[in-house]
Each structure stands twice: as C-alpha cells, then as structure tokens.
Amino acid sequence: MFENLINLFESILTKAGASEHIASLGSEAIAFISLLALSVVVYYVVWFIISRTLIVFIHRTKTDFDDILVQNKVIARATYFVPAHIILRHVAHTLPGHPEIAALIQQLTEIYITFVWIIFINSIISSLYAYYNTKEISKKRPAKGLEQVLKIVVYFLGGLLIIAQLFNRDISNLFLGLGTLSAVLMLIFKDPILGFVGGIQLSLNNMVTVGDWISMPKHNADGDVLEISLTSVKVQNWDKTITTIPTYTLVSDSFTNWRGMVQSGGRRIKRSLSIDMDSVRFCTPEMLERYGKFQLVSQYISDREKEITEYNQLHGIDTSTLVNGRRQTNLGIFRAYVTAYLRSHSRIHQDMTIMARHLQPTDKGIPIELYFFSNRQAWTEYEDLQSDIFDHLLAVIPMFDLQVFQVPSGASLEKAIRSAWIQKS
C-alpha cells in the first residue's frame, strides 16, 4: 500500500516539474506522514470502541477490581501500543530510499514501546495495591513499601533496557557492568533498602499499621499513622502537624504503640494526690460516726469496725491506749472512699484494675496514687473525666480531716506570719 502511495506521489511531483531526487524525497515524506496520521486515527478508533463497549461493560459489573483497572488507566495505557506497532511494522515501507532513517525511527519506536511497558506494568501494580487496600487485612499488613519497591524494580529494569536499545548493547552485559558498581548502588539505594527491610519487619511482626496511635518522643511524633511507605512513615500529631519518620527507625529505635489500649476499650489514668502526713490520725468514735454518714463508705466502716473489735477482743488487747491493737485511720477510710467512688462511676471501666494505693512518702507528703481506666478514649472526654474525679476528691479530702500537701506560697506564708503576730500580741 505504501509503495503504491510513494509511486503515486512521486509521479505527481515529477509531472509538477520536481527533480527526481526531490520527487523521491517528497513522496517518502508524504508516505511517512500518512503513516503517522494513520496510526493516530487507528489509536482514536480503537479507544473509541473500547470506551463505548469494554469500559461501559466494566462499569456495569459488580466486581471492584475491573473498575480499579480503569481508574489506574491500565486499559487506556494498553492502547498506547497500537500506534507504536503500526509505525514499527510499516516505517521501513514508507522510507525505502532512506533505510538508516527508518532504522533510527524503529529504534526510537522500540524505546517508546519499552516506556509504555514501564507505565503499563506500574499501572497494574498500582491497581493491585488499590485492590489490596479494599481488604480488611491491608489495615494490619500495609503494602505501600512493597508497591514502591516493585515500581522501582520496574523503572530500573526498564531504564537498563532503554539504555541497551539506545547504544545497541546486550542488556546482560549491562548487568555484568553493574555488578562492579554494586557498592556504589548499595550506597545510593541505602535508604530504600533499609526502608524495604524495615517495612517487611513492621508488616510481618504487626508492629504498626495505618491508623495506629504511636508515640516517639525522639522524633517529636505523637499521633495517628497516616501512611507507611518505602522510606518513611507519616504521623499526624494531635496538633495537626505531620511528622515524617524513617521506616527503618521504627525497627531500630523504640516507640509506643497505643493500639492495645484502643482495642481494650479502656484508657489508663494514673495520678496521685499528696497528703500532708501531719493530718493522718487514728479515728475517734466521733470521727467514725461522722464518716459513717458518707454513703459510699458507711458499710465499709461498719464491717471494718466489727472486724477490728472482734480481733482486739480475741487477742485480749487493751484498747484504752490508742497505740495498742488495730484501729481505723482517716487516711485508710479515705482510700476506701476513693475506691468505692471509682467503682460507682459510670465512665470508669469496671472490668479493669481500680486501685488507690500509698506510694513512698517524700518531703512533699505521702502520695495516694489512683490507678484506674477510663471507658472513654477520646482525648477531650478522657481529660474531662480526670478533671471531674480529682476536682471531687480535692473537695472531699478536708471532710476526712486530711490536708493536701502544698508547698507554701507567698500568700500562705504572709497569712501564717500575720496569725503568729496576732497571737503574740
């Protein structure tokens, strides 16, 4: 067909007065342009047919994978092969008088086909990754790093193939040459290699997944994991800033993953109140009567007093002296009140540890540590619960004849001096 076209235009140009060389050159140029036009027309015809049939059918199916293929342009990029193969097959027939030019165009077309293969395969990889992300397992086993590694391999091999086509070299010889540069390549791709290894360890050991709340003070990271890629992990902090951490760092350094807390349904609260040790004392009958009116500990005081009385009588203890035998203290009753208060609170997880305990006394009093779990994990609700509980406890401490230890301030020192001065006067 192209030979007939060349002969036709050559005769037309010759009749028009062109020289034999010009007529030959012009007819081949027209044939080559006709080939380019034909390849473009065929491409659009093929794409029109596919878009009106195959893609319409895909959108009507119930499966998701074929829709993902369309979204990632797998089918669209497959049509890029059509004009390239038309040119590759017929270019020699359009330029019979210039075989060196035809060979150059064929070489460039082969490079174009290699490039199309690269983007086509990468589109398939992207589609597989997108389809994988629709599955529940993707939350526990992120595959972003694997996707990036596969794409790097495709680009690397495709780049080598293009270089081999440009310089007419055997690709196996290029691989042998790269072997001598392995040390340099290891240095260049150090971060991707470490990231890939780290990503595999994170995935296999289920150390961190997208959506986990992690804390890594060394990198000022405290928030939710947004993305785990080949070389980095993105963490959105609670102040809405984003911290990027090298993937391998999560394997080589320590970090806190709060996933267990989230899955448990509770969030720990561990805070203490410092009680002035001078305010701790044995309970008198009047104190026990007054504390007995507190509903949360009334039964505890009654049962405890009965137990202590029986013990002292059984062992013949002289109770006329306070130091003899067993007695209740205002601090002990307060601890019982704290435990009962926590166990009656609707926003505290009752199936987890609830405890009020003594810590080592210090020069700032005796700390009473509260250890329990909130059933509200949201930050604002969690903090609001802590505030409500400690507001209440600070208010009821004086009702147990106890005092909270507080380092004297300027106002309190002034008040004490003024009181001493008045008493002296």
Provide the fold topology:
Layout: H1 2-15, H2 20-52, H3 54-60, H4 65-71, H5 74-78, H6 81-94, H7 99-133, H8 144-166, H9 171-180, H10 182-188, H11 190-204, E1 213-216, E2 221-228, E3 232-237, E4 242-246, H12 249-252, E5 256-257, H13 259-264, E6 267-275, H14 285-291, H15 295-314, H16 330-343, E7 355-358, E8 366-374, H17 379-396, H18 410-424
Antiparallel strand pairs: 1-2, 1-5, 2-3, 3-4, 6-8, 7-8
Tell me about this structure.
The protein is of the alpha+beta class. It folds into three domains: 2-134, no CATH class; 204-264, SH3 type barrels, CATH 2.30.30.60; 268-281 and 329-418, Alpha-Beta Plaits (2-Layer Sandwich), CATH 3.30.70.100. Helices cover 60% and strands 11% of the residues. The chain has helices spanning 2-15, 20-52, 54-60, 65-71, 74-78, 81-94, 99-133, 144-166, 171-180, 182-188, 190-204, 249-252, 259-264, 285-291, 295-314, 330-343, 379-396, 410-424; strands at 213-216, 221-228, 232-237, 242-246, 256-257, 267-275, 355-358, 366-374. The strands form two sheets. The protein has a five-stranded antiparallel sheet, with no helix packed on it. The protein has a three-stranded antiparallel sheet with strand order 6-8-7. A hairpin with a 7-residue loop joins β7 (355-358) and β8. α4 (65-71) crosses α7 (99-133) and α6 (81-94) packs antiparallel against α7 (99-133). The longest helix is centred in the first third of the chain and has 35 residues, at 99-133. The mean pLDDT is 84.
